[in-house]
Structure formats: C-alpha cells, structure tokens
Amino acid sequence: LFIFFLSFSLFSVTNGGKTTLAKNLQKRLPNCSIISQDDFFKPESEIETDANGFLQYDVLKALNMEKMMSTISCWMGRPRHSMVSTDSGSAEEMPILIIEGFLLFNYKPLDTLWNRSYFLTIPYEECKRRRSTRVYEPPDTPGYFDGHVWPMYLKHRQEVEKITWEIVYLDGTKSEEDLFKEVYEDLIQELGKQKGKYCGW
C-alpha cells in the first residue's frame, strides 16, 4: 500500500475566479481539501503603507506564509489520507489538495509542491469591474485598484513568466462551467498518471 496525494495550485489576479473554481472542483473530486492564501493575511495593523497611503496588501509581506506552510505540512501528514492499493481503487480516490491564492508562484518554498499549476487570467477592464462589485475590510480607498492592486499584479506576473515548470494558463472570462470542465478533465488525467507512477504502471 502507498499513501500519496495530488496537490495543485490555482493562481490568479484578484477576482480572477480561482476560489469559485476551487470550490466547484472540490464538489466533484472525492477526498479533496482546499487551502486558501487569503486566510493568511496579517492584521491590518501589521500592513505597510506606501507613499500614497495605500495599504500594501498585494505583497508577500502582507501574508503569514510561515503559518500557511505549516498548515500545508499538517495536511500532508494527516493519517486520514486514503490508502490506495496497487491493484484496486480509482485514481479519484487519492487525497487531493487544492491551494489557491494570488501569490503562490512568487513564494519559493512552494515551488516543489505542485503536481499541476493553473493561472487564471482576466483583462484589466474585467478585473476592475469585478473588484468594484466586492466588499472588502478594510474597504478599497479611491484609486486603490490602479495605484496598488493592478501594478502589483503586473509586477508579480512578470516574475511568474520566468518560471521554468509548466503552468496551464486559463481564460478567466470563460463561464464557470467551461473553466470547471477544462481543469477537471486535465486533473483526471493527472490523477491517472500519479497513480500509475506509484503503482509502477
């Protein structure tokens, strides 16, 4: 018997649809857990401000990444992970970890974790429109999207484009159903490969 799991990442600009996609996948993938980077923001009192007075939320310093790594490690070590035999059981029985966030590929300790990586992209106009429909705490100040959020996204995306491992780019303007189908089918293939690898196929 082997204990093994599939971990994959969903990365996108703010309001790119990663959380919705992750939840839709969790509904269909047995034994699936989600860890969201948004759950690891530091308190507002610890967030730096720039010269324009904008709170610097869209940077790694705003996140407690050590705590996030600890949470991931705890998940990986849980004994409740399924035991999948070498001669029975479907690939879908593997424990699956979805890690979703907006700065996953910019944090080096995560680099070796992924079996599969997805990057949801949406254009500036759509991103700004979606952002305007959301309520944040603290709320966005006037000019915050153009003065901080979008420039930080462009900066981080430039870093991502230098990554050498495979990233699957997804069109975040597609319907929820189309995005789900695209990623789900890709993951089922990857699950089969992982099971075959461990079972010696």
UniProtKB/TrEMBL annotation:
Pathway: Cofactor biosynthesis; NAD(+) biosynthesis
GO molecular function, one term: ribosylnicotinamide kinase activity
One Gene Ontology term from the biological process aspect of the record: NAD+ metabolic process
Cleavable signal peptide: 1-16
InterPro entries the record matches: P-loop_NTPase
Taxonomy, superkingdom: Eukaryota
Assigned keywords, A-Z: ATP-binding, Kinase, Magnesium, Metal-binding, Nucleotide-binding, Pyridine nucleotide biosynthesis, Signal, Transferase
A Gene Ontology cellular-component term: cytosol
CDD domains in the cross-refs: NRK1
Catalytically driven reaction(s): beta-nicotinamide D-riboside + ATP = beta-nicotinamide D-ribonucleotide + ADP + H(+); beta-D-ribosylnicotinate + ATP = nicotinate beta-D-ribonucleotide + ADP + H(+)
Family statement: Belongs to the uridine kinase family. NRK subfamily.
Name assigned to this protein: NRK1 kinase
Organism per entry: Crocuta crocuta
Gene name per UniProt: Nmrk1
